[in-house]
What does this fold into?
Amino acid sequence: MTRRERLRRCYLHLETDRPAVYSRTGFPPDDPTYDRLKNYLKKHTEMKTFWSGCRFETPYSAETTKEPYSDDFERRIEILHTPKGDLRRSVLVSLKHEPSMHETFFINSADDAEMYLSLPLPQFGGDTSSFYETDASIGDAGIVDVYLGFNPGGFVVELCGSTTFAILSVTDRDVIHRLCERQMTIMLNRIKILMSNGIRGFFSMLGEEYIVPPLHGPVDFKDFNTKYDKPIIDLVHNAGGRMHVHSHGSIKKVFQDFVEMGVDVLHPFESPPQGDILTREAKQMARNKMCLEGNIQIDKMYKASADDIRQETEQLIADAFDDHNGLIVSPTASPYIFGKGEQCFPQYEAMISTVLDVERRN
It folds into this structure.
């Protein structure tokens, strides 16, 4: 079974000869300590190449400036011009290879939301031939993932910040719905353009984790995730495609919602303390309906021993691959610590070799 076929069968909920094994690849930039790991992943794991073509033809009028903030961060300020006025947000961009941090957001009130809603819907276009070039280049090593970005609810949280989103969901819930519906329409339009250019297959989005317990309840998940995600997933399914969703956090109370909205692959499914669902529980609800991708906590790839990772991987396979179906073994995030590529290599090697041993035994 080729790596491409194995991943395809995982997305289609079909039996495989062994679990797939995968790692997200958002490595620290300009860090040669990860070169050995990158080469090892390319040789031994199922690969996904992300493609996000079809950009906006008419980007919104905006301007960006930068200013000093500290020895560790630079402040990036973006002004978005709308028909009803200007919106402003700021991001602290790391100068030392750490993640950026939101400082302020475009939407801080219902009035700000109305300003954002006054923006016209974007138009799509551009050359999509790079999709086919990308698909040809990955060959039998894996698949091309058409990356859609944040789901509607997650996109709106990014506009508001988690606190303002939570407040508006109580004081001005209709405004949140209008923002989510607007973004859903944009995503549907984008997918339709892609499909009109013959692009099918494997799609992905993320952001559902912003609207899960404990900050939000199951009703909020249904109202702001399920309601606006399902039409997107249905459109992909109706064209024969499959949908991957990335969502961290405490998802036990809403896990069934992921299944019912039609998510084909869910990453990750975290046990306490990072999440609240055990592998056996996730498998029970997902069996034959949704593939599980995970679940080795990324910090363990730096802190645990190779033997610990090997034992955890063996247990994961025992708990989630008893039916030879529906498991992609993966860390919960990309390798992320600058300068520590060699430190995490033995743990990655242990995880991957444990999965490959399943195929050898078969």
Summary: The chain is about 45% helix and 20% strand. The longest helix spans residues 173-196.
